[in-house]
Amino acid sequence: MTNVRENIYEPFTEQSVLVYLEQKGLITDRREVTCQEVGDGNLNYVFIVKDLQTDKSLVVKQALPYAKVVGESWPLSLDRARIERQALQEAAKRVPELVPQVFDYDDDYAVTVMEDLSDHVILRKGLLDGNIYPNIAADIGTYLAENLFHASDEALGPVEKKKLARQFVNPDLCDITEKLVFTDPYYNAESNSYPDNLQESVESLWHDDRLIFEVAKLKKQFLTEGETLLHGDLHTGSVFVTETSTKVIDPEFAFYGPAGFDIGAFIANLTLNYIAQQERADDSRRHEISAYLLETIEQTWAVFEERYRTLLLEKGFDDRQRTEQYADYVIHKIWQDTLGFAGCKTIRRIIGLAHVEDIDGIENAAGRLQAQQRAIETGRSLIFNRSVWRSPKSLTAYLKGLEK
Amino acid sequence: MTNVRENIYEPFTEQSVLVYLEQKGLITDRREVTCQEVGDGNLNYVFIVKDLQTDKSLVVKQALPYAKVVGESWPLSLDRARIERQALQEAAKRVPELVPQVFDYDDDYAVTVMEDLSDHVILRKGLLDGNIYPNIAADIGTYLAENLFHASDEALGPVEKKKLARQFVNPDLCDITEKLVFTDPYYNAESNSYPDNLQESVESLWHDDRLIFEVAKLKKQFLTEGETLLHGDLHTGSVFVTETSTKVIDPEFAFYGPAGFDIGAFIANLTLNYIAQQERADDSRRHEISAYLLETIEQTWAVFEERYRTLLLEKGFDDRQRTEQYADYVIHKIWQDTLGFAGCKTIRRIIGLAHVEDIDGIENAAGRLQAQQRAIETGRSLIFNRSVWRSPKSLTAYLKGLEK
What we know:
The structure is a homodimer.
Chain A: H1 16-23, E1 33-37, E2 44-51, E3 57-63, E4 66-70, E5 72-75, H2 79-94, E6 102-106, E7 111-115, E8 121-122, H3 123-128, H4 136-150, H5 153-156, H6 158-166, H7 171-183, H8 199-206, H9 209-224, E9 228-230, E10 239-241, E11 246-248, E12 255-257, H10 260-280, H11 283-315, H12 324-351, H13 357-360, H14 365-384, H15 392-400
Antiparallel strand pairs in A: 1-2, 2-3, 3-7, 4-5, 6-7, 8-10, 9-12, 10-11
């Protein structure tokens, strides 16, 4: 593990980043480029640097030593820049077409220089604009299967897996997830954030001891089950898309955890979009959009499952892992975990800190409240039914029942 | 993590270790001490150094860069000396009376200088001599509860736990366990070792697909569930005893794994001793010894369970963990895992590399074969019944049925 030398690190400005890039030989003349900081500044700076003569561009992402996610600043290890960069490099070994290319990095400055994806849009935004991306299920299903398999004990064998896992111990960022996903939404925590008219629904959740116990079990799994290298924050805001291209970005929450966590995060965010679309979509397009989202949930899992099974049966590290019985067992565990984590991820976006625009942006107040309540109930159902729903059809049938 | 600087390291001799101790100020005059190497030389040197004038003594344990456990030598990281020493130091924070005191260490030489326990005997040997140690259950139950709890997420919180876990990534030694406990006994592996007349029993095990699948699940748990800091090799050869003192030694296999693994290892070795005693003990004492061993199995778990529950309810990191319902859940999982791992640990000592003197030392050939077959069957029962047997009474009732 490389640790940032704090005495070298300093946050760049739009000027100083160009001096740095020139010194590194990544641009030839800083007077011939434009530079713009486009990050939201909560956790990182993101500079887009464009060569005026060649029209080529690149992105410089620099971690900041704090997060502005709880009103005041929350100190965060700069080492997460290394983790994010190494996670991108791991993914590039399996699915180079599905992640931004890393051109250079510097752990002392907590900096990664990578491909500029300004021609892409964030999937969440694209979905909210009513767009349909036909490749998403196949691309994300493939991304999940390739990455979740190839970092596991079953792919690497236990020795190499432990050596890789040691590089992805990520206490600070896991702590954010542990608090915001598994802890705070389930009691009257200061970090929570929800409208007054949701108070009754929220309190009923806080008194649901059966639910809270199930969430405690899922939290224990998140804390202890180091199955594989996760992206760690795979919502629809971590996916860049065009009509023909999908890129998974921002794996700074990467760590060794339960495989179902990433799939659950993605499915939860499609679910939230589906629930929101019942209020947002034009009447003329609601049915089409709803059908697309349900199809995407089903197909993401189907592509994941088929690819994962094939990889395990073909490349499983030991004989006993290359059997249909073992593959069924592992995949069924991942499926149950996917549902449980999807439930937690759905609920946190309504009650906890950091909401999603899908729901919060519903203009009609009654519709918004309806969507919020439905999201909470859907989360609850995902958690309770995780050992009952045998396939994505169960989830999509449930969601179909919410269609306007 | 400190890594040994290989250019400094060299294996000590009975002479050079004294020069080293003198330089370190741990002895005053090397001409006034005796020094004897007493290790079995398979993995480590163990020097006992005694001051002739004060009669005080100490032990110098030095890791060797290989293990002679598979006929030829198996390269092993010297970093395990640091892991063993830090595991002893962690245990000393909770139960200083149950571990040897560490006086000094030097990671460059892979050396730990510690309390000499020559007045103790190895528990396995003591039990084979027909001795009864009334404190063992309380001491080991306490050792297990205090250590397994205090290194867990529930005690440390997720951030501190991850920081501690990072220090105990132990690929080389875990690999030995993975191979010898979970893999090799279940197929015709070169490392296996069993007498010809056991061939039929062993082959029936290799064809027991249901058993092999259960073992694959337990192996997956061993590989992925980083619940707490384990001793990692807690058999009766890792416990030093006198009438009144218990010391747990040799935690070089320490790593973050499932809590039930340590308890299972200890119970498996009591079980093997129990099975062996049916053939070994004098008729006049067999009943007494059998009753003592069953009582020790039951009480070890009872002491562990009560202490662990109390610690969790009093010190659990978050509110949701300090509930009877969560405690029941966690303890029940540990219990199931204990049985499963005990089963694997029992079988490997009959079929795999590295047997136990308890069984191998039975002089009567028919009795030895009987004990070997019973041990295999008991292991199988432990694995299959791990979600059925609700308390140690189920196991001891089963064992009682094997009494002569």
